[in-house]
Amino acid sequence: MRKIYIIQHCQSEHHINNMSGGWTDTPLTELGEKQAERIGLKLKSELAREEYVLYASDLMRAKQTADIIGKHLELNVIEEAGLREINTGAAIGKTKEWAKANRNPMGERGFHIDYQEFQDGETWREFYVRVSDCMERIIHTEQKNLIIATHGGTLGYIIAWWMGFNIDMLEKAHFKASVGSISLLQTNGYQQHELHIFNETSHLFELKS
């Protein structure tokens, strides 16, 4: 049975300082570091008898989340640029207000997979292909179970890849998880791909103000 834990990175400076996300590279906040500690402790208690490999997006907020988790699990982090959030092009390093004022119009029919939100950024199709290709490389390289620290958009597309979504289905489907959440993908006895746990955040309850 293959298991893939997906961790949405913990609270980052861009969540509180009005900066846009995507490829804007910001570190964890003090709260974010505490959240990552809780994830590490939870996984240590649950995964003690299983072997895992730890991957992370190379953007600071995901890599720092993984570093803290890895400390508890005694695992080194393998950085993978393919696990980054969507490339926001011209919006990288800009404020949320700038991003809102300068994003490309979506059009009358709403979200579509070839929509490019920002100049010089990825379309959602390109983003999904990148994430899917990255996961194919990882899953064919590693024989052990996986822990992946990544971003909200990437997490959703990893789930879609695992569940075998046709790319056009993504125009009608979206998986939205929370900061510091844990999700689990696994195979069952019939070799079906399961979304076994989604958006688990009970380990963070005591940190909520």
| Tally of alpha and pi helices | 5
SS strand fraction: 15-25%
Q: Oligomer, anyone? A: single chain
| C-alpha-based Rg, rounded | 17 Å
* Largest sheet, spatial ordering of strands: 3-2-4-1-5-6
Question: What features would you describe in this structure?
Answer:
This protein is of the alpha/beta class. It has a single domain, classed as Phosphoglycerate mutase-like (Rossmann fold). Helices cover 32% and strands 16% of the residues. The chain contains five helices and six strands; from the N terminus they run E-H-E-H-E-H-H-E-H-E-E. A six-stranded mixed sheet has the order 3-2-4-1-5-6. Helix 4 (124-141) crosses helix 5 (152-162). The longest helix is centred in the middle third of the chain and has 18 residues, at 124-141. The chain is globular and about 50 Å long. The mean pLDDT is 95.
Any key phrases for this structure?
single chain, 209 residues, alpha/beta, Rossmann fold, 5 helices, 6 strands, 16% strand, globular, His_Pase_superF_clade-1, His_PPase_superfam, Histidine phosphatase family protein, PGM_Phosphatase, phosphatase activity
Topology:
Elements: E1 3-8, H1 30-46, E2 52-56, H2 60-73, E3 77-79, H3 96-102, H4 124-141, E4 145-150, H5 152-162, E5 182-187, E6 193-200
Parallel strand pairs: 1-4, 2-3, 2-4
Antiparallel strand pairs: 1-5, 5-6
